[in-house]
């Protein structure tokens, strides 16, 4: 083998090692389907989205668990909607990290035992999200205008959505990781759900539109949080 050939082989091996390590670091620890069902005068409406949770696998352990995915938008008909944010409200604080642990905690609550990251992919079935596990729910009078956001209470949805509307339930279901990063669907695995910008077009524009929506819904904004992360994460 020539000198150039040897170097080409070494560089190729190095590239494979680097790519493999990046896959190891960035591959989701688990994915789960977040589903919401709403009772309406026209029947039950539902929508779901696939979210991916990526634990910190960096060598220095200086990172944190992150999320990929988007808020779940439900078209309720008659110009009404419901959006399940990637956020939880804890008193005067909006928490953007709890969504990372929703599936873990939901399976633990359903089975009466703590579930760890190493065990989550062994979980099966659909489990309910109840109480503090329910993310923040909002509705937009006009999805094109972030100023029309209103906070929806899980047990009093009719106060915002109108008579005959009620939150029937939210659930989580672990789904296979698939062959990330080529999980394009089918046998390759379900990809993270995208498309919220088509429903809330102001998310595509630069500026403070996401913060405007949170403020309009009387949600706390500040404390170093990125308001857009409540709606979508890369």
For this entry, give a set of tags.
234 residues; six-stranded antiparallel beta sheet; four-stranded antiparallel beta sheet; alpha+beta; 5 helices; globular
What would you note in describing this structure?
By secondary structure, this protein is of the alpha+beta class. The chain has one domain. It is 21% helix and 29% strand. It has a six-stranded antiparallel beta sheet. Strands 4-5-9-10 form a four-stranded antiparallel beta sheet. A two-stranded antiparallel sheet has the order 6-7.
Major sheet strand order: 8-11-1-2-3-12
Q: Helical proportion? A: 10-25%
The proportion of residues in beta strands is 25-35%
Subunit arrangement of the protein: single chain
- The best one-word shape is globular
Number of domains: 1
Q: On the 0-100 scale, what is the average pLDDT?
A: 90
Main structural class: alpha+beta
Please compute the radius of gyration using only Cα atoms.
20 Å
| Number of helical stretches of at least 4 residues | 5
Number of strands: 12
The first-to-last residue Cα distance is 44 Å
- Which stretches are poorly predicted, pLDDT < 50 over at least 5 residues? none
How does the major sheet shape up?
6 strands, antiparallel
SSE order: HEEEEEEEHEEEHEHHE
